[in-house]
Amino acid sequence: MLKIGLVQQRCGTDIPENIARLSGHIRACAEQGARLVVLQELHNSVYFCQTEEARLYDLAESIPGPSTETFGMLARELGIVLVLSLFEKRAPGLYHNTAVVLEKDGSVAGMYRKMHIPDDPGYYEKFYFAPGDLGFKPIRTSVGTLGVLVCWDQWFPEAARIMALNGARLLIYPTAIGGVGTDSQEEQEIQRNAWQLVQRGHSVANGLPVVTVNRTGREADLSGHTAGIDFWGSSFATGPQGEILTQFGTDEEGIRVVDLDLDRTEYVRRGWPFLRDRRIDAYGDILERYK
């Protein structure tokens, strides 16, 4: 069994305060025996992509950099593997939305740069982030091989499948998703359910556990152009048949620690041998945009 800690919290404009609260939650996870802790997408600040403003590039940082140093010290102190989500400044004028996995000695075990970049009202990520160029490569750690993806990636079955084919033992999605103010509550609930359902489908189709950590709370659009975002919270973890093992409420802040049986994948895939029965000779059309 692998104990995994999920941290769901609100974030404000005070970055040191956000980091301090995250650090407290990480410690609480470790105190409950978590060996792997996952944080939400772009956890150091508010979700700044609601508006397009060049000054917000100043939020970006290098990797390695201040966050990997701060959280690396914490990972080393607590002896845990830690999944971060950072606004990466790769070079002048070149930025990525990047997940970083820290090993229990505080070192960088690996990175994943978000591959699918949305551009929708309230989610203007193409303004800030270049698409990832590291591929769908799992990251090897002392607690297992992690298939780390980020938010918008979670809607794409191809990303989950390739991570599985490359040896991931579980799928991890740091996330920042919610409903925009122009959608009715009924529509937002339909969308939230679809968001969870598609990820549970990735779990079933690949026989892998899924860990998804979302932010919670309402964040205003500081430009005033939209009604802001009500983040869905609802962070959750599944077993390899899509079964819900733990789930936060929409407005809940705090931690959940859950046991994941990574060895159960072998049992599940023997009963549901989807990888065996794939028709790899007949899937050429998947490489087309549309036919």
Helix content: 25-40%
Stretches where pLDDT falls below 50 for ≥5 residues? Answer: none
* The CATH homology group name: Carbon-nitrogen hydrolase
Determine the structural class based on helices, strands and strand pairing: alpha+beta
Beta fraction: 25-35%
CATH class: Alpha Beta
DSSP strand count:
17
Query: How would you characterize the largest beta sheet?
Result: 6 strands, mixed
Distance between the ends: 45 Å
CATH architecture: 4-Layer Sandwich
Q: Report mean pLDDT, rounded to a whole number.
A: 96
Tell the overall outline.
globular
Number of helices: 6
If strands are numbered along the chain, what order do they take across the biggest sheet?
A: 5-4-3-2-1-17
**Tally of separate domains:** 1
Rg computed from alpha carbons, rounded to a whole number of angstroms:
18 Å
Walk me through this protein's architecture.
By secondary structure, the chain is α+β, with helices and mostly antiparallel strands. It has one domain: Carbon-nitrogen hydrolase (Nitrilase/N-carbamoyl-D-aminoacid amidohydrolase), CATH 3.60.110. It contains 6 helices and 17 strands. It has a 6-stranded mixed β-sheet.
Q: What is this structure, in a nutshell?
A:
The chain is of the alpha+beta class and 291 residues long. The chain has a single domain (2-277), classed as 4-Layer Sandwich (Nitrilase/N-carbamoyl-D-aminoacid amidohydrolase). The protein is built from six helices and 17 strands.
Short descriptors:
six-stranded mixed β-sheet, alpha+beta, 291 residues, 6 helices, 17 strands, globular, Nitrilase/N-carbamoyl-D-aminoacid amidohydrolase
